[in-house]
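User: Some background: our group keeps a shared notebook of sequences we're curious about, and every so often someone picks one and asks for a predicted structure to add to the entry. Today it's my turn. The entry only has the sequence so far, pasted here. Could you supply the structure so I can complete it?
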Amino acid sequence: MTDADYTRRYFSEGAGRWLATAYGDEEHPVGYPVGARRVRLALGAAIERLGATRGRLLDLGCGGGDLCVEAAGLGFEVTGIDLAEGMIAEAEARRRSLAPAVGQRLSFRVGDALRAELPAAGFDAVTALGLVEYLDDDAPFFRAAARWLRPGGVVVVSCRNRLFNLASLNDHTRREIEGAAAAGLLAELASLRPGPELAVGLEDFVARLREALPALEAALAADRAAGAEPGGGSFAGHRRQHTPRELATAAGEAGLRDARFLGVHPHPFPPALEAAAPRFYNRLAGVFEALEASPVSLAWSSAFLGVFSR
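Assistant: Of course. Here's the predicted structure to add to the notebook entry:
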């Protein structure tokens, strides 16, 4: 069971620290900027489905408002909801700093995302990045998203990737083996066949790697100079994981269709090695972003985006 009160306090009290890591733009980041990357991917996927950068967008579990601000800047009318009052305070501070033409397209509120009073079929897009892993069940979320979404609208969700447990070589791997689930996960992973996008992705991968070599050398030098990194205040509560098939099944039961999946947060090596050279590790991870549109990326990505239409 998830602990909603602990989750609220963790993200409210540590809002500034968490946002700085997830959305940081340092040249050699110690942590992978997963928040910034999934915002770009989620908005790109939503716009591709909608065919426009306008309409009404609802962001559930909006955090510090990064996706909301980006969407408003593109032309969307945006509502963001989050349980953590500290996150909404950060979001409101950002809204006030924006040009009036952008800020007036933004609205934030504190509250339980699934209990909000919102108009049925009132939104063109619903996004939820890093929310469902803190819920006890997927069904209420997808029912609410489908209710608030207009016909033809798009839902974009990010999840922790259970398939990655096969490659992480840590306690998650051990639990899957001891629970006799590894064979099923392997079968699902094997079913995710790459398509024509892989050839394009591999060309991009080679180009990125060639361009990144000087930065990789600099990142490795920075790791050596920094020595051991201090530990952070990691989330200690329960967080759920999903496979793409599990997420698609839950979405389908709510009437959502046309599933597409994108890998997020690539791990070029098992995660335990990140602590030895975090700047190098995360700079190299950026090269693997070239392959995130291909199903094969789910083998090494610790999270994924699911994209669905109503």
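Suggested note for the entry: The mean pLDDT is 92. DSSP finds 13 helices and seven strands in the chain.
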